[in-house]
Specification:
This protein is an alpha/beta fold. The model has no long low-confidence stretch (mean pLDDT 79). The strands form two sheets. The protein has a three-stranded mixed beta sheet. It starts with a strand and ends in a 6-residue tail after the last helix.
Amino acid sequence: MPGLGVGVRRRGTGQVEDGPKRRLLTREIPAVPNIGWNIVDVRDIAELHILAMTSPTAAGRRFLGSGSFWWYRILREKLPDEAAKVPTRTMPDIVVKLLARLNPQMAMLRPELGRTRLVDSSKARTQLGWHLRPTEETIIDTATALIANNALGR
């Protein structure tokens, strides 16, 4: 899993990605697992798809679209007000491993514990002129949309 696409959906649906970030923002997860992802905004991925479909130089080629790596625990630091409920404790790896036996979602996290993945999207940037918005902007936009759409049950 090279990256995690997050963000606000287009077309005025008011819907947003509501997976891991929603669970962290509502403290459904009591502690933050020792995992992180290369975060990329879904709006940037949509742009990359369009660039790849419309560029003659992209024919027959594959392009990786991924952003910078962030540990989940950074969410609280970057959104102090919006992420007030984000747990400050890190879930010990052994707890994740034990829970993985009972919970399929935790089982998916097990191979990612403590692992930093470095993903290179330079081919998309140099050959297609693709640009990413800052990861902080993506996370803030997603959290703000979740809050504005009452997706956090506040």
